[in-house]
Amino acid sequence: MAEGPPSDLADHAEDFSRRYAWEMDYLCGSRMIELGIPVGQIGSRVPGQGHATFMPQERSGGGNDPAGGLTVDSGVFNPELLGTLPGSQAWAEAPLRDRIDAIIAHEFEEARRGGNHIGALLHAPDTELPIHQRARQILQAMRPKERRS
Predict the structure, then answer these.
(1) Could you report the per-residue pLDDT of 3-28, keeping only the tens digit for each?
(2) For residues 90-115, b (16+ Cβ closer than 10 Å) or e, as one string?
């Protein structure tokens, strides 16, 4: 008898991501192109695996490498990714397309600031990337209170 999906949401997100890694890699790379991410920042080299824009084994939502390469990961499927942090409700209620946009914008802004996560939280809601409005609302909700408008 086949076993069902993992009950832990992060485990379930990673399990799903591993099964659909190729499709998600294509989707995330295409979306980065649509948003105008420079070609050299679309994805990252993965030792022993080549180049990827989607990392199914990671759980943080996304990342950026020292060269500025941007990735999305299995955290995009986890509605509890932000836990009790600001923006968690907006994240949990958002559709996948808006979560992807929010991650790409956050990681783009973080890479622009030399890996500064706080800088990305402050500036991502105002990114010049043409992200969906609901993604911008997620990023606005995540912004530290002293900078919210």
Answers:
(1) 777 789 999 999 999 999 999 999 99
(2) bbeebeeebbbbbbbbbbbbbbbeee
At 112, give phi and psi (nearest 5°): -65, -25
The reported pTM is 0.93
Residue written as tokens 């993965």?
46
CB atoms within 10 A of CB 80: 14
76 touches 61 (CB < 8 A): yes
